[in-house]
Model the fold of this input.
Amino acid sequence: MRRWILVFLLTLVAAPTLAQSPIEEARQLYVRYHEDLSRLDRARDLLEKALKEDSRVELMLSLAQVYFTWGDVRAGDRDEKLRAYERGRELAKRAVELAPRNPVAHLWYAIHTGRVGQTRGVLRSLFLVPTLKEELEIIFSLDPNLPGAHNLAGNVALELPGFLGGDLDEAEKHFRQGLKIDPRFTALRVDQARLLIKKGKHAEARKELQRVLSEKAPRSPADWAAKDSKRAREILQSIPTNG
Done:
């Protein structure tokens, strides 16, 4: 279990037998992408080139993460986002085929599936919901302690309408469990705040968002700077002051 957690938290670290130079360069670019978003382009290109010569699962998952972040913060429009998430989904699906008991492979496949659905629109993506649910069941059967899996499960329960399985209490259970495992996972804490707002718990939501903004050692400093702190500020400003 610990091995898979490390793979998820330290993706872009290649297996010892991979050619180290392009992989290490890509990792160094990625961990500081917030300083210059074009570093994501270079990391993507390095990994795509490496993948042509070595089709290992670790490399596929590293590239899937780059495409996820590229789609989130680098893509210029909806079509670019969709292409990035679809490429990430393709890579993760292939990783699942090669390593069906790798929970991180299933997680990236599920994450990209969710992003594809969000980008296309919920009504046009209802056919993806069974895949998401099936993948989450597999992930938790393989490793119930992946914070990213709890974050994804929480978001699925938060965003889906009730008739498709949406459940605010279920979402809160997953968010709290994920934060128990990794309290410095700031993206998860922002989503916990979103859930609390939906439940009308504005004071608790403010505390969660303030914790994000004051976090001194986030799990991913680049994600914190480029995404999580910005989302936290925006949501904090949207909470009614009398709530």
